[in-house]
Structures are given as structure tokens and as C-alpha cells.
Fold this sequence. Notes:
Elements (H helix, E strand, L loop, with lengths): L1 H7 L3 E5 L5 E5 L2 E13 L3 E11 L4 E6 L1 H14 L2 H4 L18 H7 L1 H13 L2 H4 L2 H4 L6 H12 L19 E2 L1 E5 L19 E7 L4 E6 L2 E6 L3 E3 L8 E12 L18 E8 L3 E6 L2 E6 L3 E3 L17 H6 L11 H15 L18 E5 L18 E6 L5 E6 L2 E6 L3 E3 L7 E5 L18 E6 L6 E6 L2 E6 L3 E3 L1
Antiparallel strand pairs: 1-2, 3-4, 3-6, 4-5, 7-8, 7-11, 8-9, 9-10, 12-13, 12-16, 13-14, 14-15, 17-18, 17-21, 18-19, 19-20, 22-23, 22-26, 23-24, 24-25
Amino acid sequence: xxxxxxxxxxxxxxxxxxxxxxxxxxxxxxxxxxxxxxxxxxxxxxxxxxxxxxxxxxxxxxxxxxxxxxxxxxxxxxxxxxxxxxxxxxxxxxxxxxxxxxxxxxxxxxxxxxxxxxxxxxxxxxxxxxxxxxxxxxxxxxxxxxxxxxxxxxxxxxxxxxxxxxxxxxxxxxxxxxxxxxxxxxxxxxxxxxxxxxxxxxxxxxxxxxxxxxxxxxxxxxxxxxxxxxxxxxxxxxxxxxxxxxxxxxxxxxxxxxxxxxxxxxxxxxxxxxxxxxxxxxxxxxxxxxxxxxxxxxxxxxxxxxxxxxxxxxxxxxxxxxxxxxxxxxxxxxxxxxxxxxxxxxxxxxxxxxxxxxxxxxxxxxxxxxxxxxxxxxxxxxxxxxxxxxxxxxxxxxxxxxxxxxxxxxxxxxxxxxxxxxxxxxxxxxxxxxxxxxxxxxxxxxxxxxxxxxxxxxxxxxxxxxxxxxxxxxxxxxxxxxxxx
Length: 485
């Protein structure tokens, strides 16, 4: 109640002047940040912008404003102060046009954000004469309605980033803009819909599309960019892959030719078994026993009566699936960072893909092929074996493609097959020579000059990127830049 009472008052503070007299100074806006957009029902449905307002006395408040309210305030200000728009350059830019024909109101609200950010930056730079005028000053002062909406958000757990309206709800969840950092430069091919990225720049994500293209805004513009060119600005990066439960099959609706060794090619009309999905637009699939990454846009899920025995060898008719396909955009390109790390991350995600088989465990002295553990693995169930990177095992049974029965010293148990490498293919550190200068695009990479010797210690995590060292420096380097001595 005290806070509500405070909000109803004008913001004033008393400051001491050099002549020791006192005067009343109106507190004005110094910073305006757009936190997101939110659907509101009160009683009609509309969207509001969530603004964090900082004032000259360092106080901060959260307010919710409709675009129409901002537009009205803008018009009243320029009617009163013509110089705001007649000065060159303009002290206040024009606001984006209001569209009454758009069916997607949420998208329209999001698309205005870059222009509004520019508008608020101009407001921040205005002379105090304008910012302390009640027309503008009152607009940015928190009201009882702002407090009620803020409390509803907190009580309903409204910290998420998804707009979802349920029957009977008065308020939708706020769409908080997530900040990401570009991991490397992106040059768009379609400059009308895509936007360039500069490595290290921060962008705000307005929309995440499952195709792997995200709609972003930053100082360089607004448009679509590949999701795998971005990483979270603040939170630690989570596992990007989601393991598919059971056998999930998709129809390939376009031809795809690999451009990297960790990808898998296929023709239109084949059946693919999806092991891992990801919101970066590149899924890990199995096509006729060949595994690798492929564009999710080239796949359509097989459901209903089309799910039958021997589906792989007897695929359903292609035509119905072509009608479901989105042929309006291409697969997002893969960044060097994605090519470097995707295989390693996918391997970790797949380790708990299925439960080890319940078939009989081999008895007697261990006999079989020798394999080496590629990464540390901690058992997550009964009958599994915990092993460390570099441990040598004997594979005594390959009951399915995911779990093998192994022996290590006097211990035996089930172990994920994707954590094992054929020992015959394992060699010690090898020397290679650079065939061209290589300038790294991230801190994880290794720089080198043509002719320098690189000691390679890992060729298996990613076939296109090898880990090695030049003197005391170590990091990842493209295999295509190296030749064997």
C-alpha cells in the first residue's frame, strides 16, 4: 500500500544548490530499456511493451505501455514543441506506422522494437525542458495498473519467454527478449530477409523458429540469422540436443549432399530415423545405417497408418509429405563453431539414449575386439560400467547399435557404443604440416603459418576439426589445412 501511494505521487526530490538555497527539481527519465512484449486482456486483447525506466534520482520502475499510448504522447509533444521534428537532425524520430491489417499482432509488435529502441534513445538525449514536461514525464511514471500487472506476472510465474493464452486467463506470459552473442561473422545471401552478424556483438532474439533460423534485432539491423551462429549472453549454454524417445521416423522431402564429414547424404523419398533434435535446425539422423547431421527442414515426420513394419525398406508414398513441407526457405548454414563442437555434444547426448538390453550376459574369459574409451562415462543404471577416457576394453557382445557388453580389467558391464573407438585406429600424437596460413575465428582455435609443424592429438572428436599444438599453444584447426609428413 505504501508503494501504491508512492506511485500516485509525482516524483520530486530536493537538491542543494551551490548558493545553499534549496529548490524543487522534477525527476525525469534518463534511461529506457525494452524488456519485451506481453499479451493483455483488459477486457479487450492487446499487446503492451514492458519497459524498465531509470530516472534522474537513480530510481527504477517497470511499466507497461501500448504502442497507441506512446503514439498519442508523441503527437501531443510535437504539437506543443514543433522544434522536436523541424530541427535538423530531428530531435525525435518518426514512430513506425500502425498496421491495422496485420493478422499476426504479436509479430507486428515485435517488429516495432528496433524503431522503438531508437526512439527511446532520442528521448534520453532530449533537453530536460522536454523530459520534465508532464506530457512526457507522466507517461513514464509507474501507475497502479503497472503494479497490478507486475504482481500478476510474478504470481503466475511470468518469467518465461512464451506467449500462451488459456481460457479464462486475463494475462498472457511476458515475452522477455533473450540476449545472445554472435560466435562468428555471418554474411547473408538474402539481404531482404536476413541480417549480417559481427562476431562478439550482442543481439536480441525476437523469434526462435524450429527451422534453425532465428529473428533477431541488433544495432546492425533486424532479420533472420542461423541459430548456430549464436550463444547465450549470460546463462551457461545448455545441451542443445534433445534425445528422441523410441524410434521416430521421418520422410526426406529434398535431396541433401554433405559438405562436412559429420553430415549424412540422402535422396528425396527415403526414411530417416531421428536420434537427436535441436533448435539450431540440424538434427542427428540414421539413414540406412549411415549416421550424421542433416537439415531438419528436409524432414517431415511419418505418423498414423504409414508407420508399419519394415518401414525403412518399404517407405510410404512421398507426395502427401511434400504437401506438408516448408519449401520457402533454405537450411541454415553451419558455423565453424557448430562444425567443431556438434559431434562431441551429440555423442554426450546419445550416451543415455536407450536402456541396455536385458539379454543374457556373456560368460567365460573375455574374447572380442579391442576398443578405446573416447570420453569419460559415468554409469547411470544397473549393469552399466563407468570408464575413463583412454581406458582399453574388450567388446564381448554387440546386442544392439547403442549398447555393447565390455570387459575392463576384472570388471564387465554394458557401455554406450558411441563412446568407443576401434583401438586399431588409435595412434599417438602425429605431426602434420600447415599447407596455408590459418587465422582463427575464436579463442578455441589454433593459429599458424604455412609450413609450421602441428602436433595433432585428437582426430576423432570431429573429423573436420582436429586438436593439436604448435609449441606451447594448442587448439582446434581445420583438417583441410594440414598434410601428413
